[in-house]
Amino acid sequence: MHFAPWNIDNGKILTRREMALVLAELKARAERSPNAHFNLILFRLAACCGLRVSEIAQLHIGDVDVGTFRPHLRIRPEGAKGGRPRRVPLWWDAGTLADLAAWKAERLAQGAKQADPFLASQRAGAAAHPLSRHTLRRRFLTACRVLGLERIGALTIHHGRHTFISHALAGGRTLPEVRDSAGHSNVSVTSAYLHVAVDEVEGTGELFRF
What we know:
The chain is mainly alpha-helical. It has nine helices and three strands. The protein has a domain at 16-148: Intergrase catalytic core (hpI Integrase, Chain A, Orthogonal Bundle), CATH 1.10.443.
């Protein structure tokens, strides 16, 4: 589902408090639950990297570059909106980088190949098969369940993308930087996010750093 930027309001992003609650709950459960670990990575890709659900579904293990000076996600033309490839910086947020690097290492240790889906079915014998967009949307809401039924009833996975863009701008990233990382066609689209509050307390917004 796509939301036009002029319809953005505070209810369509997760605040810093909400981000902290979701990430803390998922990280605590991920140590003992493969499903929670999966949901943590999905949440990172959507809300901390700004990927569209179609981009998450088509992300390959080899697209996640965590071993360079500027670690990043590579969004290939076939997975990008309008066929516009881009790189999404992972070095903006140490927590996201650490979680995605650990997931990639785990997948490779299990025998996955570079061209396999970064997020794949956890059922036995289905590890190389990507998940449907419907499944990813549903799992994102499951990831956010600590926020309560009323709140997640107003959320979709695309709100994760709104969250990333809004927090990146509030954290001091420039309009061109965020435009390029989000894959917007022009900076005017990105600028629509400039005045979206990212915290309950005005003026405390910054990029994630959880």
